[in-house]
């Protein structure tokens, strides 16, 4: 048992203004959620697993826009006890529960998103395009594993866009970047684009539109994410091929109409 594990188990005090900000804007950034010591303890294991499990081996210039945006490796927790400790953190899951206003949350899946040096933009999108869920009670925590200045491509949000339905049918692509950039601008959604301090994290709803600038630094932007769903979430009939694949991959054995309840979706808080 290490000294940093207790931090992952202790409560983080969310303020009323944090809760109100999330409800209004569809995201919230929270400082000092994790100490530099905790991040330093888990980052090498997460990064090692990304390197080990990454399947993207094309040079950057030969990839499509999605491929240039980041290296994406999912469900690292299944390959590492250390990552499992991090992903199953009651501290992080409790924040998700409070923000969503639900009794309990399950794991949907985790994702490491590593934007390489020279990595391109992450186009505007909403995550829930990919997820066959019956309600909007799902949230992603975005945990940078280093200080993340603007040059490194931190996550940027369209504040309040979680109720904007235009563009929800678009996967991450050049088209989603173009169409949503214009639509969000026309609707006067404020784009919140700020650096992240070490230990600062953000939570965003599945339907909150977001994107990220390129990484123009000479080091990778290392980010770990965990997607939490309301423990009472039911599965909606998939409406696109990505949702069909997600149902099979992340909720094996579950069917539309079921509760999200596969062995890959344990209750975390």
TrEMBL record:
Q: Which GO terms describe its molecular function?
A: 2-oxoglutarate-dependent dioxygenase activity; iron ion binding
The parts of the chain that form a coiled coil are none
> Key word Oxidoreductase present in the record?
yes
Q: What SUPFAM superfamilies does the database record attribute to this sequence?
A: Clavaminate synthase-like
Q: Which UniProt keywords apply?
A: Dioxygenase, Oxidoreductase
Transmembrane regions listed in the UniProt entry: none
> By its UniProt entry, which InterPro entries does this protein fall under?
Phytyl_CoA_dOase-like (IPR008775)
UniProt superkingdom? Bacteria
Protein name as it appears in the record: Ectoine hydroxylase-related dioxygenase (Phytanoyl-CoA dioxygenase family)
Q: What organism does the record attribute this protein to?
A: Kribbella jejuensis
